[in-house]
Amino acid sequence: MNEAKGQLPSQTSVEFVHAYNAQSHEIIDAITAMVMNSEAGVNWLHAEPPDLEGVRRALNDIVNDCKRNRRSTSCAHEERAHSGWNR
C-alpha cells in the first residue's frame, strides 16, 4: 500500500508534464503562425499593386491565431491551478 501511495504523486506529475508540454506546443504553433502571417501581409503590401485582399486574409488569420493562443494559455493556466502544481 505504501508503494502505491509513493507512485501516485509521480504518476500525477508525469501526466501534468505531458499535458503542459502539449499545450506549450499549441502556444508555440500559434505564435509561429502569427509571425508567418505578419510577414505574408507585409509582402502583400509591398506588391505592385498591393494585394489588399491577401493582407485582409493574413490579418484575419492573425486574429484567429491570437484567439487560439489565448485559449491555449487559459487552459494551461487553469490546469496548473487545479493540479496544485505550484512554483
Question: How would you portray this structure in words?
Answer:
This protein is an all-alpha fold. The protein has a domain at 16-43 and 53-82. 89% of the residues lie in helices and 0% in strands. It has 2 helices and no strands. α1 packs antiparallel against α2 (52-83). The longest helix is centred in the first third of the chain and has 45 residues, at 2-46. The two termini are 29 Å apart. The mean pLDDT is 79.
Kindly summarize this structure in a few lines.
The chain is an all-alpha fold. The protein has helices at residues 2-46, 52-83.
SSE layout:
Blueprint lengths: L1 H45 L5 H32 L4
Helix pairs in contact: 1-2
